[in-house]
Write a structure and sequence with these properties.
The chain is an alpha/beta fold. The chain is built from 14 helices and 12 strands.
């Protein structure tokens, strides 16, 4: 039986399930256990809280955006004693600030690798090295970080790393996955918070035989299986490099158009956050992308709504897509009275592409040809 009609308690599906777990370990580059949950990434975030901690445990949350604030809300909802290290939107919490806050009674540290709401990244390597020296576990939301930035899970001491199916892994939303270190499993032996659907020890038991504890999303698992074959064929490093080069080209295009980046000091390769020009609501830019060109970019969230717009460049996104997006952006700005030189942003993208072509013979893999033809 093939396709979405495959029953989730058959050997055919068990084979797919086991292959997905093995391939996730390979592309994530970890020897740690990897589990898959039927949930959005937030489900895996919640699982990392309920499975590893007890009420009253002291934890540190590093927050610099809306998704960092989600960690704060979630840990407080489960009765943890939360120390909040906060950086302004567009910035990042420093590893030095985290190291100063770490005390022997801290049981865990939570952070976003890539803060999607602001387009900024945290230095998870330096943070992980600081946490490794303590008894705390380091929990990293890498939902947009995986596949867009280097993450050496084992050597950097990233005890739980969370991913989602809909970002660089290129399939529809609905699956979350997480790598879990031996240190994190040891924390689970002492944890007393209630959990039921997101019981990671139960999931590990079922996963050993190629099943999930609850009803699996067969269609999404089959899609993820195919996406992983593709990622393995080009290499995770190539997928990351594609995002990094497109992010660089996007930033240079914005500079050429006189636009200001929101996270200029520590920009993400998954998404570029751009300040709307004075006098223009970012919601207008988002709306015109959709209505005039059938393209989707994102507005700011919370207090940033109307102030920034966000352009993603991860997964299958390639240089041909970027040419179109920047040309459309130029036309939208021009139509709304913003002084831009038409073609300036596109020319900046072309220059980046041309520079890569000269210096790297694998350009077609990195910036478009293979990604575009999938």
């Amino acid at each position: 039986m093939l396709g979405a009609g495959m029953h989730h308690r058959t050997q055919d599906f068990r084979n797919v399930f086991l292959a997905v777990l093995a391939d996730l370990k390979q592309v994530m580059g970890t020897a740690n256990d990897v589990l898959v949950l039927v949930a959005s990434g937030t489900g895996a975030m919640e699982a990392s809280v309920t499975n590893c901690f007890s009420a009253g445990d002291r934890v540190i949350v590093c927050t610099a955006g809306k998704f960092g604030e989600r960690w704060v809300e979630m840990t407080r909802a489960y009765g943890l004693d939360v120390i909040v290290l906060e950086a302004p939107y567009g910035k990042a919490v420093s590893a030095e600030a985290l190291e100063k806050a770490l005390t022997p009674d801290v049981k865990g540290v939570f952070v976003q690798a890539s803060e999607t709401s602001t387009g900024a990244v945290h230095d998870v390597r330096a943070m992980g090295e600081a946490v490794q020296k303590t008894g705390a576990i380091f929990v990293v939301d890498a939902i947009t970080g995986l596949g867009t930035m280097p993450l050496y899970i084992d050597s950097w001491g990233l005890d739980i790393v969370i991913g989602g199916s809909q970002k660089a892994f290129m399939v529809p939303p609905g699956l979350a996955f997480l790598s879990i270190s031996p240190k994190a499993w040891a924390h689970m032996e002492r944890a007393k918070l209630p959990r039921y659907y997101f019981d990671l020890k139960r999931e590990k038991k079922y996963a050993a035989s190629g099943e999930s504890a609850w009803t699996a999303s067969t269609a999404l698992m089959l899609a993820l299986n195919e996406a992983l074959q593709y990622i393995k064929s080009i290499g995770m490093a190539t997928l990351i490099d594609n995002a990094e080069q497109l992010a660089r080209a996007t930033r240079e295009a914005c500079h050429a158009l006189g636009l200001e980046l929101f996270a200029a000091e520590n920009p993400s390769a998954s998404v570029t956050a751009v300040k709307a020009p004075d006098g223009l609501d970012s919601g207008v830019v988002v709306k015109e992308f959709r209505q005039r060109f059938g393209a989707i970019i994102a507005n700011g969230q919370g207090e940033m709504k109307g102030r920034i717009f966000r352009i993603a460049h991860l997964g299958y996104f390639d240089v041909a897509d970027l040419f179109a997006v920047i040309a459309e952006l130029e036309l939208i700005l021009y139509a709304n009275g913003i002084p831009v030189t038409l073609g300036a942003g596109v020319a900046a993208v072309q220059r980046v592409y041309a520079e890569i072509a000269i210096t790297d013979k694998t350009t077609d893999k990195i910036t478009g040809k293979e990604l575009a033809n999938v």
